[in-house]
Amino acid sequence: MANHALLNNIDHKDLHIITQRGAEYGDNQMLAVTFPAEFRDVQACYPIVFRKTTDGLGFEPVALFGFTEGENLFLEGDQWQAMYLPMMVERQPFLIGVNGDELMINIDLDSPRISRSVGEAVFKPHGGSTPFLEQTNSLLAAIHQGLQETPAFLAALLQYELLESFVLDIELNNGSQNRLVGFYTINEDKLAALDAAALATLHAGGHLKSIYMVLASLSNLRSLIDRMNYRHG
To answer: Pairing between strand 4-6 and 120-121?
Structure first.
């Protein structure tokens, strides 16, 4: 259960953050939310797909780390085996709070990454921000900005009916059958059928590049299956 609090240098003066990777720190997750500004880095390592939001009213892009809940095929012990760590993973246990027009840094005090003695110090002994906190602040700002651009991208996909659900059936080398369901991707046939005006509109909105990044990322499904085969023998 999350326990979010507004970060401050009085209540949290001794706070340290454990930055190493591991299942015990919550890294055993099958996906993380991403956003168009991050697609270039994400698509180099992970498949990008879409899922319905928790309220069921919209969609959000996610980077896939595995095929089943609680499975991260990039996590081996304390090693995250990919060149790029998605921002929504890296930010833990911090999150963005909003107070009117002002952005605040909140922290999940129940996170296993919280420590009073080991890890990266959040505040200096006399209360100032450490370089680690400054870096975290920049990371959260980038996430906030990136998430602001997501609705326009999704609206464009829906306007041209470019999202379609898909099912991925996986047979592992050991003969076991697995199925990935509940996700959506870009319908390449509908994309190819768009007229010049529609493509120009998508390009002008900066969405065409993001669409091609998503499509390019799907080649990572093969390597993800290879990781699954290796994991399960």
So the answer is: unpaired
